[in-house]
Design a protein that fits this description.
Blueprint: H1 3-6, H2 10-16, H3 41-54, H4 70-73, E1 79-81, H5 104-115, H6 123-148, H7 163-166, H8 173-190, H9 204-224, H10 238-254, H11 267-270, E2 283-287, H12 302-305, E3 309-311, H13 313-316, H14 339-343, H15 348-351, E4 360-362, E5 372-373, E6 411-415, H16 416-430, H17 435-439, H18 442-448, H19 472-484, H20 491-497, H21 501-504, H22 524-527, H23 565-570
Antiparallel strand pairs: 1-3, 2-6, 4-5
Length: about 575
């Protein structure tokens, strides 16, 4: 179904939601339906259509680059903006209200669950929309869990007198995730498989991938937050890791999905800048933009100038050389005195993630005009990339995407590569990963870009492993995840669930490229505006007093957000998160 049809039921949103009010902080309406509604399966479909508009991001604002900027927006060691991330720097404060503690979406989801049985139709015609509702309820709760940890679990359609649910206690996160997975198990059983479902709708395989994501997140959270204020007392995450391994393996073994562009030149880069994924085997759920329907983005603004985002040296250094060895020990590494040397003999995904000299900025220009090729970062533009490493991944250089006010580059929500990574990580964390497991997961990703396979019994030692206290295989699985999913919005969550902020964030200063490589190409007055460290690497936050000594993330507080003050007053049963 085209996105324009998905938006048809937007009028229903007017009376079903109260987006500007806090759900648990208001008197619920006892009846918000019309007598003419809940009459047919089409009513269920129209209601479910609304989830796709309100619960999945669309990234249609100006100066928005879709999910390709989320590694910086959410805060990570992969990518930064010109302004430092205040959350990573421990500057979050307890809000008086709001602060993400908003439950209006859950109200709409539970209202569907309380009313769908009023439709007089066979279960076979109804179950898909019940499955979609359970999927999106799981998504809502998972997002809230990542922010706040323990949560009230509410499945009822609330009434005015239902104070026990409105002002109940927060259930332990372990129990919340159990309930999320129960919802997803049901969704998986109700939803149609890919091929028999409508385009642009959640199907069984998408729900399986999402379930593996949730289970892996909580399994590793419980494993690595043991003994700190944010853990799940009495639980070590094993059951959730087993669930993640099982559901991801089931998706792999189903043979329904596969990787795109295997063996295709620049195939990894080409995966992320398409306008249509209807024929993709890897892209599992995506959004199509259509200018004629008034639904488009403005991502084209990013391509020529970087739009204030920059890849970090820390991420760049994690890419292996083409011999499968890290730069710390490979004889193939040529250093980083220039972008060309940096990418020489490296995992091709590096050169397909950051701009290199000669990469296209604008192609297919009219009237035979020459293509515009990248030479150096646009340091003189106010929206320059602050590290000198400019994002190439996800950028569509086609003139048709840059010549008007609208871009129709498609938005990816779920892709199969994540399933392969979730499977490998869950098996590695359980300590039961085999070479066969690697060959049907990580080594497929490596083969796509012609990198040597990961051999379980022959992992090159890296003296700069990020996690030297963990096994070589866990380090390499995490490296592969970082490289494959770079700048797709996963890294912040990974750092949080691994309890790794103390290692990767605290006291760390994000760096960029060596500035001297452009000394003869950029006016000295421009270069002087970019601080560098003693080794000559761009140090974007060097002169910012709040960043003196690196990030000030508080590992005893900042893994979860604070509960707003008004909620603590309204409901004394809700206790504040640790450290706040």
């Amino acid at each position: 179904m085209r996105l324009s049809k998905i938006l048809l039921f937007i009028s229903l949103l007017w009376f079903l939601t109260s987006c500007n009010k806090d759900f648990l902080n208001r008197s619920p309406q006892s009846d918000i339906s019309s007598a003419d509604y809940w009459q047919s399966t089409n009513d269920l479909k129209l209601y479910a259509n609304n989830y796709y508009n309100t619960m999945l991001p669309s990234y249609t604002n100006y100066f928005d680059v879709g999910y390709f900027g989320e590694d910086a927006n959410e805060g990570s060691d992969n990518m930064i903006g010109q302004a430092y991330n205040t959350g990573l720097n421990g500057e979050t404060v307890v809000p008086s209200s709001g602060g993400g503690w908003n439950w209006s979406q859950l109200r709409d989801l539970n209202y569907f669950m309380a009313n769908y049985q009023r439709v007089n139709a066979p279960w076979s015609q109804v179950k898909q929309y019940v499955g979609e509702t359970l999927f999106f309820r799981s998504m809502f709760y998972f997002n809230m869990l990542k922010f706040f940890g323990d949560l009230p679990w509410i499945t009822q359609s609330l009434t005015v007198t239902d104070t026990s649910n409105l002002y109940g206690v927060r259930l332990p996160r372990h129990n919340v995730v159990d309930s999320i997975l129960n919802d997803l198990d049901s969704a998986i059983s109700y939803l149609p498989s890919r091929g028999s479902s409508e385009p642009f709708r959640v199907d069984k395989q998408v729900a399986m991938l999402f379930e593996s994501r949730v289970a892996l997140y909580e399994g590793t959270w419980e494993k690595y937050h043991q003994g700190d204020p944010f853990g799940a007392p009495g639980h070590q995450g094993t059951a959730f890791l087993e669930k993640a391994a099982a559901v991801s393996e089931a998706l792999i073994n189903s043979g329904v999905q596969s990787l795109d562009n295997v063996g295709v030149e620049d195939g990894y880069w080409k995966l992320f800048n398409q306008t249509d994924y209807s024929n993709s085997n890897e892209i599992m759920l995506w959004r199509k933009y259509d200018v004629s329907a008034g639904v488009a983005t403005h991502w084209y603004l990013y391509v020529p100038i970087g739009l204030e985002y920059g890849i970090t040296k820390n991420l760049v250094d994690d890419y292996l050389c083409t011999d499968g060895k890290p730069i710390s020990i490979s004889s193939l590494y040529k250093g980083d005195d220039s972008l060309d040397l940096l990418a020489a003999n490296r995992d091709p995904r590096l050169g397909q993630t950051i701009y290199l000299p000669g990469d296209p900025i604008t192609t297919n220009k009219p009237n035979g005009a020459p293509n515009v090729l990248f030479q150096i970062p646009d340091f003189q533009n106010s929206a320059h990339p602050p590290t000198g490493y400019e994002l190439f991944k996800g950028m569509d250089p086609d003139y048709s995407q840059q010549s008007t006010d609208f871009s129709t580059q498609a938005l990816i929500y779920f892709r199969y590569a994540e399933c392969l990574l979730n499977f490998a990580e869950a098996k590695a964390e359980l300590g039961i990963i085999t070479q066969s497991d690697l060959d049907k997961s990580i080594n497929l990703l490596r083969a796509r870009v012609n990198m040597p396979p990961l051999e379980l019994n022959d992992i090159p030692f890296d003296p700069h492993w990020e996690f030297p206290n963990l096994s070589p295989i866990i380090n390499e699985v995490r490296r592969e995840r970082r490289v494959e999913l770079a700048c797709e919005g996963f890294r912040h969550d990974d750092i949080m669930r691994w309890a790794a902020a103390g290692k990767l964030i605290v006291g760390q200063t994000p760096l960029g490229a060596k500035m001297n490589q452009w000394a003869s190409l950029v006016p000295s007055t421009t270069l002087s505006q970019y601080p560098v460290n003693a080794q000559g690497y761009i140090d974007p936050y060097k002169n910012i007093s709040q960043m003196a000594g690196g990030y000030h993330f508080d590992v005893n507080r900042d893994y979860l957000l604070p509960i707003p003050l008004n909620q603590l007053t309204l409901n004394p049963k809700i206790k504040q998160n640790p450290g706040w």
